[in-house]
Design brief:
Distance between the termini: 28 Å
Helix content: 55-70%
Radius of gyration: 23 Å
Number of strands: 0
Order of helices and strands: HHHHHHH
Length: 146
């Protein structure tokens, strides 16, 4: 195993752990700011005061969250004002390894499709071989869909 592969495995472990913890977490229909605020029994005016903003600014932040326009800084400030911790993550729907395997399968099938000289009976075998090679070597064009 190369140093590059070992480092990639360490990153994969971090992402896989986050993926497993966040698997069932979904954004509430009203967004996190409003949902947590209501769970705490806090009014918009009270949250605004704790943040050094107006109630209207809190309403704007809650709307921006629902529309996807809220900033990480605003989410952090709202969380802290409610005595909470703001957490965000980018996680794949499955393990990182499975995302890589699927990409290797796409690339292998595209390559095999181009090489029409491969007989049908050997196609699956060749796809598996090429996938393993792609996963091991991880060429620079691995994530290019061509």
């Amino acid at each position: 195993m190369t140093v590059k592969q070992a480092v990639r495995q360490q990153y994969q472990a971090i992402v896989d752990l986050a993926q497993s913890k966040a698997e069932d977490v979904r954004v509430p229909a009203e967004g996190w700011i409003r949902t947590v605020r209501k769970a705490l029994g806090m009014s918009g005016a009270q949250l605004g005061k704790r943040m050094g903003h107006t109630r209207a600014r809190v309403a704007q932040a809650e709307k921006a969250e629902l529309e996807g326009g809220v900033t990480l800084k605003s989410m952090q400030a709202a969380a802290e004002a409610m005595g909470c911790r703001f957490v965000y993550a980018i996680v794949p729907p499955v393990t990182v390894e499975n995302v890589i395997i699927e990409q290797a399968r796409k690339k292998a099938l595209a390559t095999i499709g181009i090489a029409s000289t491969v007989q049908e009976s050997r196609t699956q075998q060749e796809v598996a071989r090429l996938m393993n090679e792609l996963i091991y070597q991880m060429p620079s064009d691995f994530w290019e869909d061509k």
